[in-house]
Amino acid sequence: MEPEKTRTGDSAGAGGRLKSGWASGGSASSSTAATDHRVYLRPGFDWRAADAYLFDIDGTLLNSRDAVHYHAFHHAVEHFFGLDLRLDGIPVHGNTDIGILRAYLEAANVPESEWQPRVPDVTAFMCAEVTRNAEDLRIEICPGILSGLNHLQSQGKLLGVASGNLESIGWAKVEKCGLRGYFSFGAFSGEREKRDDIIAHGIRQARALHGPETCVYVVGDTPADIASAHANNAPVIAAATGIYSFSELLDHNPEMCIACCEDLLQPDLDDAPKPEI
Ligand SMILES: [Mg+2]
Questions:
Q1: How far is the CA of 6 from the centre of ligand 1 (A)?
Q2: How many A from CA of 105 to the centre of ligand 1?
Q3: Threshold 0.70, pTM exceeds
C-alpha cells in the first residue's frame, strides 16, 4: 500500500544512546551491564518484603540486539503517515511505544487530531510486523535475571511485567528468551501511554490476583521506572543493566540500586553501605 502522503525530515539530536529494545541495525545499544557489585539499600528497606514484583522488560529483563522493534515502528509510520524520520533524536529511554509515537509525530508536525484516531491501526501494524519477524529477535537476558527470578519464584512471589512496549511485542521478547513462564501477568503500552498508568495497571492486576493488600515492588533500569513507581507509592529496585549507570540511577532515589540482579543474592546484602559516588 502506498503511503497517503510523504513527509521527510531530520530529527534533532541524533547520536544519543539508543533504547535497548530499539537497537537499529548494527548499532545495538551500549549496555552498561555493570561488572562491579555495588549495592545501595535505603536503610530499613527490605527488598524481599513484597508479595509481587513488577519487572520492566527492556534493559531490565533483557536487551534486544536486533532491529525488529525499531524497523516495525518505522515501517508503521511510513505506511500510515508517509514519514521517513529516524528515531535517533526522539526520547526513547524509559518512554513507551505510544509516547515514542507521539514524540515522533510531534517532531514531524503531524496534528494529534490526525494521528490519534489511527493509533489502534498503527499499533496493530507494529505488533503484526514484530510477530512476523520474531525469529529475527536476538535477545540477551540481563546479568543475574535468571538467578533473581528463580529466587523470587522459589519464595512464592507473584511476578509480572510492566513495560512501555506494546503487549504482543513485549511478550514476544520475553517469550523469545525463555522467560515467559515466570510471569503471571503484564501491563503494557497501548491503551495506556504514560508509564505511571502502566505501572498503576500492573499493581491493580497484582492485587486482583493476590488480594487487595498485596505489596508490589517495581524493578526497572531507568529514571522513568523510578519516578513512575514512586508516583504509584511503590518502592523500586533500580538495576544498572540498561543504558543508565548505577550512579545515574542512584541520583533518582530508588529504595535499592544494584549493578545487576545477581546482587540481590549476595549473602552480606543487608550490611550494604551507601556507596561513595
Ligand atoms: Mg527499561
A1: 32
A2: 22
A3: yes
Residues that place a CB less than 5 A from ion ligand 1: 56, 58-59, 221
Residues 6+ apart with CB under 8 A from 90: 11, 100, 103, 104, 107
| Structural domain spans, the chain | 39-64+138-266, 66-136
Task: Tell me, in angstroms, the distance from the centre of ligand 1 to residue 222's CA.
Answer: 6
Chain segment 97-114, per-residue pLDDT in tens: 999 999 999 989 999 999
Can you give the pLDDT at residue 93?
77
Taking the centre of ligand 1 as the mean of its atom positions, its distance from the CA of residue 57, in whole angstroms, is 6
pLDDT score at 3: 29
Spacing, Cα 186 to ligand 1 middle (Å): 14
Residue 13 pLDDT level (bands cut at 50, 70, 90): very low
- Of the candidate CATH numbers 3.40.50.1000, 3.30.1360.40, 3.10.105.10, 3.60.110.10, the domain formed by 39-64+138-266 belongs to 3.40.50.1000
> Which regions of the chain does DSSP assign to beta strands (E)?
39-41, 52-55, 62-64, 139-141, 158-166, 185-189, 216-220, 236-239, 256-258
